[in-house]
Amino acid sequence: MNVETPRESPTSPVPRSLLPLLLLLFFGSGCAALIYEIVWFQLLELIIGSSAVSLAVLLETFMGGMCLGSLILPQMISPRRHPLRVYALLEFGIGLMGIFILFGLPEVARIYSAHVNGGMAGIPWRGLVATVCLLPPTVLMGATLPIAARWVKTSQRGISWVGFLYGGNIVGALFGCLLAGFYLLRIYDTMTATYVAAAINGIIALAAFALSILAPHDPKDELQASSAAAEQIAGAPRVPKNILSPVHIAIALSGLTALGAEVVWTRLLSLIIGGTVYTFSIILAVFLFGLGIGSGIGSIWVQKSARPSVALGWCQLFLTAAVAWSAYTISQSLPYWPIYPSMTVSQWLNFQIDLVRCLWALLPATVLWGMSFPLALAVAAPHGRDSARLVGGIYAANTLGGILGSVGFSLYFIPLIGTQQSQRLLIGFSTAAALLMLAPLAWQQGGKKSFAAALRGFLIIAALIFFPVMFARSVSKIPGELIASGRYMFEDLGKSQMLYAGEGMNFSVAVSRRLSDNAIGFHVSGMVEASTEIHDMRLQRMLGYIPALIHPHPKSVLVVGCGAGVTAGTFVIEPETEKIVICELEPLVPQIASIYFAIPNCNVLQNPRTHIVYDDARHYIQTTHDTFDIITSDPIHPWVKGSAPLYTREYFESVKGHLNPGGLVTQWLPLGESDFSVVKSVIATFFEVFPNGTLWVNNYNGKGYDLVLLGQAEETKINLDQIDQKLEQPEFSAVVQSLQSIGFPSARDLFATYSGQARDLAPWLKDARINRDRNLRLQYLAGFYSNKALADVIFNDMLRYRKFPNNLFVGSDESKEAMKIAIDAFSTKR
Length: 830
Fold this sequence. Notes:
The protein is α/β, with parallel strands linked by helices. It is built from 28 helices and 14 strands. Helix content is 62%, strand content 10%. The strands form 3 sheets. The protein has an 8-stranded mixed beta sheet with strand order 7-6-5-8-9-11-10-13, with helices on both faces. The protein has a 4-stranded antiparallel beta sheet with strand order 1-2-3-4.
């Protein structure tokens, strides 16, 4: 295909001085749109869950709405209407819907939880919720660029300005990403962020309306510009208007590879940097930064290029090299940089290092993807009758490709073929886009009689085949050590032998054997989730044994998070337990735990009493009608993005509502990689729901390491005499042996880990910030302190408020006195 971009149309009524003002409006529009996206996704994940399936549903709906808007609204809105006034109405409508969604979501959540059962059967309902909430505003968002294109026309300068508007919108999105992620949601909450975005929409609407008064619109200009463009390229190969033309397919493939790569690289970079909410903001910001730069370069190129189809083709070919560069950098370079996360307590310094690493890995590819959009517009522009429909078609094709890329790679390609083959597939898709644009040029050169032309054609075809193949072959697997140790990989190199490394739909999983003591570690996405080390085994079993011994007859148990299965395994040897439900997000986790941890977890995953539910734990608890005697929760660290919803007041209320009378809940809280504000936030939030709650410590080398939070709707009473009598029965001998294996010769030694209760800790918690659904305060607090090592300092400070709980322990005077001595002795041993 060899299509020239038309020179400047003789009818170009738009004052040049007003175009930068429109660019500023699109900057604000992109800023508001990204704030909405972050807020809406955060709120909707609380309703439909944060699994890969739920995230795919949200992203597909969001981008699908923009695709529909770019295609349908330009068809429905007459060119006779002033584009800037239509644009003003669109922005006003987006802001109005943003506020409506904010206040309507609680009612949506109520209806959803009342009618949906947990598990995969509820996916259609998740899609319905996403459609109802996201489709109306995103349809309006998708129409803004095509409608504005009617004002700048399809001349060469006009297409260049459309590219600049697209780039300005992306740069605005970059600013919105950073504003929401690092300020609005960290300092305030989703309500404030929504009001800010709606205010931006309102200002844009007023400014666009005022701008329309300064620049009257004549719809005849659109027809004259299109006619002039057509006359200048008479005889040139005609580009079909439909969505299946080569340029539309090429730009769709470009969108597919861009969003597919974002899914793959975000997953891998979060291993290297750490999966905090700030990491995801940084990665997204770098993507948007590169796209914005590329769009600007492409827009300038459009003004000078007479053959945009060739430029678009070479751009896709260069992308094969850029993808290979990113793949190499992420798997073979960045993990081995001598960077120690704990080398500074200032997270802002770490953010700068993270930003440099992301730019180094991602910038080349993102710039080329950004260049692709204006170049594709220039290819299609000469034959566009209506600039809005022309831009809408290219935008829709690019967005549709992005939908296929994000959903396909997150749900299918990564879990089926892994990130290595997925990146090779990205190179293949980019090669296909390059062939679509450059093969006609090669064929044209090869058809000429001159030897030089034929050689050029042959070299083009050879380059389109040889280089992508070589680049694809250069892509290597990520190190198993990266899945195991994540951001601490450089420090842990050579200390362990990798037994397994695999990539699932939601997480990556690894199993290692430490060379110094042969301890087996179970790792999920760069963090140790369980191990056979004594302190880890003790914690995992404390989460089960503390409530199991307190409850008189624990028949039904819900375990939130499978991990290595050790916590769930404590109930296998509990003779009264009849039903064990494990709620796990990643199907790969139980599969691997059943192989490498079958003995420590008592083969719980093969036990007939065990039922595994693959779902987001919060979503399952909110939608299931089952109730339990014990709910024990061992979620991932609070600083990991997506875990904060399992520490909110509303989540604890939901857990409380699914307890049978007399039921108990235990919750893990790590003291390491944390700060006073984080620990206090979790404890205070838990105690708001369970005002009779208590704390129990798991020591490591004699120092405070983990906490187990225990809650009950009723006032908790631990009858020491009854528990002793229970453990003396023959059927509880396995429980006694299990307790002894983790350093608790008796139940009294287990309960000696008591570390405080809500009423005593109230003065210590007076300045704590409650983690609620509307703010998810915890993930922003914890993300700032994930490099600190203050576990024992925090615990010692908390321990100052501990008193012997006469209200908690009941039984004979001798038993209570022995319990008091045991607690004092345990503290002395520290």
